Amino acid sequence: MNYTDLTLHTDKYQINMMYAHWKQGTMNDNAVFEAYFRNLPFGNGFAVFAGLERLIDYIRKLSFGKEILSYLRKQEEGYEKGFLEELSRFRFNGSIHAMREGTLVFPNEPIVRVEARVFEAQLVETALLNFVNYQTLIATKASRIKRIAPDERLLEFGTRRAQEADAAIWGARAAYIAGFHSTSNMRAGMLFGIPTSGTHAHSWVQGHESEEEAFGQFAEALPDHVTLLVDTYDTLRSGMPNAIKIAKQLESRGKRMKGIRLDSGDLAFLSKKARTMLDEAGLSYVKIVASNDLDENIIADLKAQGARIDVWGVGTKLITAYDQPALGAVYKLVARERAGELVPVIKISGNPEKITNPGVKNVHRIIDKRTGMAVSDYMSMTEETEVREGRAIKLFDPVHSHRVKLVEEYDSIPLLHSIFSAGKLTYEMPNLEQIRSYHESQIALFWPEHLRKLNPEGYTVNFSEKIWELKMKLIREHRK
Ligand SMILES: Nc1ncnc2c1ncn2[C@@H]1O[C@H](COP(=O)(O)OP(=O)(O)OP(=O)(O)O)[C@@H](O)[C@H]1O
Ligand SMILES: O=P(O)(O)OC[C@H]1O[C@H](OP(=O)(O)OP(=O)(O)O)[C@H](O)[C@@H]1O
Ligand SMILES: O=C(O)c1cccnc1
């Protein structure tokens, strides 16, 4: 059994549509799909795009091998032999544009655009959304935590509670992009080069005759990496005094204990007490690590209570995006080939939010020349050149359509980059450190009003006049 081949990591309806296109003779018609989400998660003011690296790897490896073809042959749909032969020759020969990982992204703007034969573009929908939805969600959650604790160390502890193994490692990577400092997951460390860190569990203490012996043995084994978990029996009466004893023994060997970890009880009260005890013992360099179902709200609360915590270990609430476990990014057809030409298409809905934005689009971030800060994003048709040439543009606010703004003086940053062109990888893949610092530079483009945790100021994604008119025209045509 090959657990790693993702070619069939797709919904059956994609295979059925591919089959129907093959039967109908339209499989080679070109199509353009755009992925975007409609609502920001967690009431946040932005999302952090992630998932591209995995998408690239998936696209490059797509191929229908023998095992897959024989499985498809057995399906009750009775796919014809010619279709399976077609699949055996399949590879992705289309083009993909996407945002760079770590980019701050907003509702309704395309974050990935796929232009390919409909046969190819349809297949990849499910996996693309699966990667992007999860990783973007976790990077966004991690970014919320980072905004609350910008100066402390953030450790990702989530694997044991993650929704299985893939989520654990790609979630750890997403958290690192958004500013976490390390992960406890060794496979994520090895695969992605994320720094790893670890303390010890309660079982280490329970597994010895006394807490003091447990601490002593641990310090003996890893004298340069000692962070002691002090809450197994009684934090202030036993854990802390024993930890201080060990720290002093380490000092006599010229070593410094790194930290103590609190994992239960009132973390504000205990951290203040622990800090005082450490300082009074001349151990002001020993850090205080806290864990126990932490998230950005509890961390903010603990900080407001004056908790003396230097390092936050965050697991469950981060890796599962506990308070909002799904991002709703969708993948919509925006143009299709008709008589050899690409024509824009729309999907109408009674719910205005669900009416799609037609046409093949670019996204630019509009930067105020005076402040260097982002003022809004601007979607235009790929054939429109004004924004690329820095000429005056009209911003149409799609939510408040009476608000039209003429902008003449601005800088603009194109957000969609070529990833694949005619099946060839065109993107020079940044390493994880570069992605992480790119993300930091992205954050610096935004006013704090957009970044705050609670009720952030909405950041606008505008249409060009052309997109606006096209959308209105297609809606009118459909009404008829
Ligand atoms: N001072 C505080 N203010 C707000 N929340 C806190 C404070 N101290 C701890 N918490 C949080 O309260 C929640 C409840 O902790 P809980 O009572 O379940 O843990 P516990 O009983 O102390 O430990 P255990 O994990 O062993 O059950 C945790 O999410 C913890 O992070
Ligand atoms: O609380 P999280 O944010 O998920 O962080 C990871 C938790 O995992 C460990 O606990 P363990 O699995 O031993 O269970 P516990 O919660 O009973 O301590 C650790 O002590 C943290 O409490
Ligand atoms: O290193 C730790 O302290 C750790 C790692 C994973 C989960 N809980 C704690």
Heteromolecules bound: adenosine-5'-triphosphate, 1-O-pyrophosphono-5-O-phosphono-alpha-D-ribofuranose, nicotinic acid
Using the alpha-carbon principal axes, give the shape.
globular
CATH C-level category of the largest domain: Alpha Beta
Class from helix and strand fractions: alpha/beta
Distance between the termini: 54 Å
Per CATH, the superfamily of the largest domain is nicotinate phosphoribosyltransferase
- The fold-level CATH name of the largest domain is nicotinate phosphoribosyltransferase
Which band does the percent of strand residues land in? Answer: 15-25%
Low-confidence sequence ranges: none
Question: What do you see in this structure?
Answer:
The structure is a single chain. The chain is built from 18 helices and 21 strands. Strands 13-12-1-5-3-19-20 form a 7-stranded antiparallel β-sheet. A 6-stranded parallel β-sheet has the order 7-6-11-10-9-8. The protein has a 4-stranded mixed β-sheet with strand order 18-14-15-21. The protein is globular and about 80 Å long. β6 (about 155), α7 (about 165-175) and β7 (about 180-185) form a beta-alpha-beta unit. By secondary structure, it is of the alpha/beta class. The protein has 2 domains: about 10-140 and about 325-480, nicotinate phosphoribosyltransferase, CATH 3.20.140.10; about 150-320, Aldolase class I (TIM Barrel). The protein has helices at about 10-25, 50-60, 65-75, 80-90, 120-125, 125-150, 165-175, 185-190, 200-205, 210-220, 235-250, 265-280, 295-305, 315-320, 385-390, 430-445, 450, 465-480, and strands at about 30-35, 45-50, 95-100, 105, 110-115, 155, 180-185, 225-230, 260, 285-290, 310-315, 330-340, 340-345, 360-365, 375-380, 395, 405, 410-415, 415-420, 425, 460-465. 1-O-pyrophosphono-5-O-phosphono-alpha-D-ribofuranose binds near residues 161, 263, 294, 316 and 317. 1-O-pyrophosphono-5-O-phosphono-alpha-D-ribofuranose binds near residues 161, 263, 291, 294 and 314.
